[in-house]
Amino acid sequence: PLHADKVIVLTHEFLFEDGKRGMGATQNLPKLAKFIQLAKQAGYVFDTRDSYTPNWQVGNNYSAGDYVLHLGTVYQAVTSHTAQQDWAPSPTSSLWTNADPATNWTQNVSYKQGDVVTYQGLRYLVNVPHVSQADWTPNSQNTLFTAL
């Protein structure tokens, strides 16, 4: 049940440890299997944050760290603010970051011009379509990326 008294919410940050795709599978899943077994025995149910994320709304007060759903994407507030019509969460917003770990820069990913990626806590706009390489990191390739 969605609103059971004992709900454990698994976050993207946990499943994608250190913001790297796949790290959660090797580092967290072995621990998670035992944790789930013990929690189920204690009567807990599991869900994702997406089921509990409220829709973004103009006029709402948001604190840094709050999560909202906007146009099918989960965003996290960077700073506390009251939402205004022209402050909607977006890939280029300074008030929100995309909480989806798929936006974290990773090697061997085909990026399109206009994509926004996160690398070492900073956001970058992709200037040129390319497949990412180990030595083409956003902070070292100003022809491929522009810091936002």
UniProtKB/TrEMBL annotation:
One of its GO terms (molecular function) is hydrolase activity, acting on carbon-nitrogen (but not peptide) bonds. InterPro entries: CBM5/12, CBM_sf_5/12, NODB_dom. The keyword Protease does not apply. Keywords: Hydrolase. Residues 1-47 form the NodB homology domain. The keyword Cell membrane does not apply. PROSITE patterns: NODB. GO terms for biological process: carbohydrate metabolic process. CDD domains: ChiA1_BD. SUPFAM superfamilies: Carbohydrate binding domain (SSF51055). GO terms for cellular component: extracellular region. This is Dehydrogenase. It comes from Vibrio alginolyticus.
